[in-house]
Design goal:
By secondary structure, this protein is mostly helical. It is built from 4 helices and no strands. Helices cover 75% and strands 0% of the residues. Helix 3 (15-22) packs across helix 4 (32-72). The mean pLDDT is 91.
Length: 77
Amino acid sequence: MADVVEHEQFNKMNARNVAMVFAPNMTQMADPLTALIHAVQVMNFLKTLILMNLKERENADAKARWIEKQTSDPSEE
């Protein structure tokens, strides 16, 4: 899901939109009203997970760039 959101500028699928698509499929119940209530909760949860995953990726990329700069910069020695 985070991979899709990373290409939002091309596919217009932000974290909310992706979560909205997946949530109903994760909350199938006999009572439609109960399913809808749970789908909204699952949607919010998925959105949070997607955003957390994207933030973790950003942090990992920033750390990798920092480490690469520290190990490749001869002026630091």
